Amino acid sequence: MLVPPAAKKAKPAASTELDDVYGIKALLSDEYKKDIALIKVHSCQLESKQQLQAVIQELAQKLPHFQHLKRVHDRNVLICPTADIEDTLELHLKQHQISENVLQALCRNVNVVEVPASSAKLRVQYDEMIKYWPCKFHPDKYAESLQNGSNFTNSQRLFHKRMAQLLRSLSRDLNEDQPVAICVDPRQNSIVAIAGSNSNSSHQHCAMWLVDHVARSQQGGAWQSQLDFVEDEEQNTTRTLRGLPQTYYDYLQQQEHCQDLQYGAELPRRGSNEQRTDDPVTSADNLSKYGPYLCTGYDIYLLREPCLMCAMALVHSRVKRIFFLEQSENGALTTSFQLHSVKELNHHYEVFQFTT
After folding, report:
1. How far apart are CA 183 and CA 97, in angstroms?
2. Contacts of residue 313, Cβ cutoff 8 Å, sequence gap at least 6
3. What is the rounded (10 degree) CA torsion for 331, 332, 334, 337?
4. Which residue from 190, 198, 222, 335 has the highest number of Cβ atoms inside 10 Å of its Cβ?
C-alpha cells in the first residue's frame, strides 16, 4: 500500500513576506572577489621522471617560489618568475648555486607559461585557477558559507530581516525618515540599545549615539541626551533596559508584531574587565566569558552605511557584526572604502548588507 508523502509545513506569512522583501549579502574583502591575476613563469619539461626528485629538492631549497602551486605537472616543472631573470635563465640559476646536473636539466625544453599569482580563497577561484596550472587549495568552510549565503539558519535569517524591517518602521514613525540604529545581543536576540539621529552635527551620527546608548547599559555614557530612557525595576539584578530610549521602547511595546521581541542587556560582571583580550580571534567569545564590555560580541543594525568615523568607532567598540540597509555617499564599508578588510586593524567585524 502506497503511503502519500507528509505534507510540507507552510512558512509563516511574516517569514514569507520578509523573504520576498529582503535578502542578506556578506560583504567580503576584495581578495575574495578579485579576478585571477596571472604571472609569467619560466618552466621546463624534464626528459625523464628519474630527474624529478633531484630537481624538486634543489629548487625547493634554492628557489622556493610558488607555495600556492604544485611545482610539477606531468614532467613540466616551474622554475622561477620570468620577471626575476635579469639576463639569461642559465646565469640566473648559476647565481643561485644550482648544481650542474640540475642546471642542465632545467635549461632544456624551456617555456614561458602563465600561472596564478596568488592562492585561492574560495572554491570558485580555485576552479578558475586550475585551468592554468594545478594549485594547492585548503577550503575555508565558513568563508564559503559567507560567499554562498548559507552561514545563517532559517531562524537567524528571519530575525535579521525583522531587524531590517524594524529599522524602516522606527525611522519612518519616530525619526522623520532619518537614520536609526539597533544593537542586539545575539545570544538571546535581545535588543540592548536603540538610537536615532536627525541633526547635522559633524560627529553626533547615529552609530555614535548607539555606542553611547550601549555605554548607558553598562553604567556609562558620555553624551547629554534630551531623551528619557527606560528605568530598571529594582528587583531586576541581572539585566538592564537603560540603553533603550523610552519613546522607542513604548512604540515597540505597542506593535503587535513586536510582542515576541526580547529587550535588555546583561549587566557588567564585577572584576571581569581585567581578564579581557583584544585578540580578534577570541574577542567574539568574550561576551559569553566575561560579560558586556563596550559592544563586544554584539550585532549592530544600521539604516545607513556608516561613514569612516563611525565605522572606526565600531571597530574600537569591538562589534561582532554590522548589518545595514542603505549605502551612503561616504560609506566606509562598501561605497568608498572597506574598513573591515584592513588587515592592520586589531579587530575585525563581519559586514552584511540587506538587499531589496
Report:
1. 61
2. 207, 208, 211
3. 120
4. 190
Question: Within 10 Å of residue 191's Cβ, how many Cβ atoms?
Answer: 25
Dihedral (CA of 15, 18, 22, 28) sign? negative
Q: What is the chain's pLDDT, residue by residue, as a tens digit (356 residues)?
A: 455 555 555 555 455 566 667 899 999 988 888 888 999 999 999 998 889 999 999 999 999 999 999 999 989 999 999 999 999 999 999 999 999 999 999 999 999 999 999 999 999 999 999 999 999 999 999 999 999 999 999 999 999 999 999 999 999 999 999 999 999 999 999 999 999 987 777 888 999 999 999 999 998 888 888 888 999 887 667 889 999 999 999 999 999 999 999 999 998 887 655 445 444 445 557 888 877 889 999 999 999 999 999 999 999 999 999 999 999 999 999 999 999 999 999 999 999 999 98
**216, 208 in Cβ contact below 8 A?**
no
